Amino acid sequence: MSFRELLADVDDTVFEVLGDAAQIEGRDVIGMFSAPWLQPKLGQIRTALREPHLVIRVADNAGVEVKQKVVIDMPAEDGGGNYTITNIEPGGDGLVTLVLRKSP
Fold first, then answer.
1. What InterPro entries does the record point to (predicted)?
2. What is the pTM of this model?
């Protein structure tokens, strides 16, 4: 088994157990959603990152484009709801970060 195959197996397990359900233009994907304004407040640490984002695997990124609609399948209190992709940032590690903006 190659190193890349081993990492793909690890990613499969991590995303299956810890991932958040989402739909990109109606297509089901599993990713890691983060809404920075909902993060626990620890002391006075401030970061410049304020945009919500969804990290997905490169294989799930096929056909994804800026301005597409994303629905995060979780309660609104946890940041779930409708979003629009504003930027796509490949990480070089087999993952892609979709920067999101809340949609009405």
1. Phage_Head-Tail_Connect_sf, Phage_tail_attach_FII
2. 0.82
Domain region containing 79? 3-102
Query: In three state form, how does the secondary structure of 48-86 look?
Result: CCCCCEEEEEHHHHCCCCCCCEEEECCCHHHCCEEEEEE
CATH number where 9 lies: 2.40.10
pLDDT at 17 over 70: yes
The bridge status of strand 69-72 relative to strand 53-57 is unpaired
Q: How far apart are CA 94 and CA 73, in angstroms?
A: 23
Q: Find the angle CA(54)-CA(97)-CA(73) to the nearest 5 degrees.
A: 15
The answer to whether residues 51 and 101 touch, using CB atoms and an 8 Å cutoff, is yes
Report the domain count for the chain: 1
Pairing assessment for the beta strands 69-72 and 20-24 based on DSSP bridges: antiparallel
